[in-house]
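#struct-help
A.M.: can someone run this one for me? Single chain, 467 residues.
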Amino acid sequence: LKSSADTLKSSLADSAAAFGAVSDSVDALFDAASGDSQGIAKDLRAQADALASHATVYRQVADSLEGAAPSLPESLRPQVTALAGRARAVASQADSMAASLRTAADKLEAGDTDLSAERDAAKAKAAEAAASINSIKDDYEANVAPGLASLAEQAASMADALSGVSDDLKGVGGELSASATSAADVMAGTADKIAETTEKLKGVSSGLREMASDIDGAIASGDRDALRAVLGSDVSALSKALASPVGVERIAVFPVENFGSAMAPLYTTLALFIGSLLILVVFKPKADLRIQKEAGLVNPKPRQLFFGRFAVMAVVSLAQSTVMALGNLFFLDVQVTSPWLFMVCFWGAGLVFTFIIYALVVSFANLGKAIAVLLLIVQVTGCGGSFPLQIMPDFVQALSPWLPATHVVNAMRSAMMGTYGGDFWAQMGALALFLIPAALLGLVLRKPLEKFMEWYVEKVESSKLIS
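D.P.: on it. Structure tokens below:
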């Protein structure tokens, strides 16, 4: 880089001097224009050709600078691009000066010796070119040369640093050569197998093309015997081509062993929900006052009664979900890759289902049980356990994330067929979020409706239809 910079600097100085010399020689030729007009015209054309060659050189310099600019640092690119533009300007000025000289030569050959206009134009262009070259030279020395020198020093220091690395790489290269040789042998064998397979495919393709051509000919001629002969010539090839024109290789990432295991998340989730609903059928959502007095409870707070009663149901729910999970594992023998995650899914789903139904029944009495049954019906379709959600109607797809059974099914599938990242815990976390609205319903929102629900329960029980 440093030597190239010095060369460019000296070339710019020589070029400025050359343009000055051309200007002086052209001025002398114009002074002698009254003499041998033909010889002077020839000299003027020679000078014009020399200027044209100078223009070509400057255009090449501009092309080189523009080509080198992308590989230079960001700080040098604008200056180098500007130098390229100025070099093209000098080339244009040299072309203009050469055109003025050729015009003057044409006049001399025609016998016209009045060359004052051409002389002034040539001198002006020569002065402009010299000034442009000097400007390029100054700009180069002030802006580009220091950057190139710094870049050259950095490259030299990098070369010194890399010299040691080169020795280390040579040693590594020797160790890798043996591995490369063995890998090359393996690749060569693979290439041979691929080539062999390609040849077989070409043969099959050629045979099918010939059969297709024969069939087309037989159909065009209307000869049934010929068509029958073609179709019967290679029945196996034709049947394979028609039965399976394209082969599909299926690689299961999370394989399912059998249909029962595939459907187990749906039916087990529904069983958990129904079991939670039956808990609220067996147990009363509120403890009797007599039981509270026998237990020694004096003016208990509503939240204490709410969570205390749920604790009894939670114990039953855990026992129920444990039996159900163990039955799936050891009696039904469903596919399970993570037994502990499978158990956690059952325990969590049972508790959340029981808490939701408990909050509904506490708030709305028997209406809460009806709402729970309605929620069960909606979840049968909306949880995505039997059919993929992608083929379901749009409103089912939009409703599915808001159903607790959806997240239970997804978490159970992860525990049974294999987890991906944190998908199991993400689904269990989404399921746990349903505890928040259920708690708000059971602790806060039921208070405004408490008197109405007491009146409703009294009227229903007085009918002797529901106790």
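A.M.: thanks! Residues 41 and 405 are 101 Å apart (CA to CA).
D.P.: also worth noting: The chain has 16 helices and no strands.
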